[in-house]
Design goal:
The protein is α+β, with helices and mostly antiparallel strands. The protein folds into two domains: about 60 residues, no CATH class; about 35 residues. Helix content is about 30%, strand content about 20%. It has three helices and four strands. The strands form two sheets. The protein has a two-stranded antiparallel ribbon. A hairpin with a 5-residue loop joins strand 2 and strand 3. The termini are far apart.
């Protein structure tokens, strides 16, 4: 069953600072394209425990590390393409 569409896109990029104070590139949502709820970053943490979201926001948990670890566990590169488990672990430095 397909979820309802939202009009948020991840096409625009900007910069911000991570928990260590380093400048990083980020996606800035716009309203120019339909995305399913599953792909919409507005809902990324909707089912995540508040205690984990709080730790991520305080920099106690590196969400980027865990995203890269999940990609490696799936054998995918940064673009979501299959490259195999060993290559993905090497690419993501896991």
């Amino acid at each position: 069953m397909k979820t309802a569409k939202n009009t948020t896109s991840r096409r625009n990029e900007g910069t911000t600072y991570n928990a260590e104070g380093r400048k990083v590139r980020v996606s800035i949502p716009t309203r120019d394209e339909d995305l399913s709820d599953n792909e919409n970053p507005d809902f990324l943490f909707s089912t995540t425990f508040t205690s984990l979201i709080s730790k991520i926001a305080k920099g106690e948990i590196d969400a980027n590390f865990y995203a890269r670890m999940e990609l490696a566990n799936r054998g995918l590169d940064l673009n979501g393409n299959w490259i195999g488990f060993a290559a993905a672990a090497k690419e993501h430095k896991i």
